[in-house]
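Q: How would the structure tokens look for this protein?
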Amino acid sequence: MLHGGILCVVPSLPKYFPFFFFSFPSSRLARHLQKEAQSQHNNSEFTEDQKKTIAKIATCLELRSAALQSTQSQEEFKLEDLKKLEPILKNILTYNKEFPFDVQPVPLRKILAPGEEENLEFEEDDDEGGAGAGSPDSFPARVPGATEGTLLPRLPSEPGMTLLTIKIEKIGLKDAGQCIDPYITVSVKDLNGIDLTPVQDTPVASRKEDTYVHFNVDIEIQKHVEKLTKGAAIFFEFKHYKPKKRFTSTKCFAFMEMDEIKHGAIVIELYKKPTDFKRKKLQLLTKKPLYLHLHQTLHKE
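A: Here is the predicted structure in token form.
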């Protein structure tokens, strides 16, 4: 059954597959399916090939969710495409045909949306606790695809238009030495929290020292500054992997508004999760003087 264009399932009851269908947000369903696809428990009734198929279905659901939310999508994943997934999902235990779409399973960290992964298991951060010790070290890659990131090249220049490069230098955290596979997701949002440019992930940080996680990586903003809408902001979400819970969590976030775009160094405050893209209910992460350190470079012909 398809209701409102959303295909749904009860992923937490693998013993009762084939699946039950009911109205359910596609992005949330995608995360549940991805969690099942990446589960390591020995009593799973799915083979590795079946898990890959489930992960591909999750990818399709994410594409559909993105198409519904985007006003500028050029390659939408249509409702007709979504309907093709139902017989596959209902017959996952016997399905042996070629998958109808050329997609790849998405790593779990790509599927967990900002602010939503915290609902899976409550975590309380002690903002007044001591700093994590930690000597300079490398972070082993524990999440598929996390090491490389998803950074994009600089856009072609246009006469009279300005491009912005932001170097993420480091972020100050009291427990910097305890963060596993930390990376930063960069997005540009309008006042309603809608993406204005493609979202980019930095590679996993290569160094931690005292109360800092160092990145030293350039982010090329994928729209000319003059074309950004009034009230837009650039968001930086610091994420890290939790091996016991097997998912990547947003620890904190920061943002930079349009009047802060200027050549040179800048430090911006850190706020508590979940990420508030509409900037309505902001709470500082800590009273300690810890910030995200950036350096901006403006390119104009």
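Residues 107 and 143 are 7 Å apart (CA to CA).

The chain has five helices and ten strands.

Upvote if useful.
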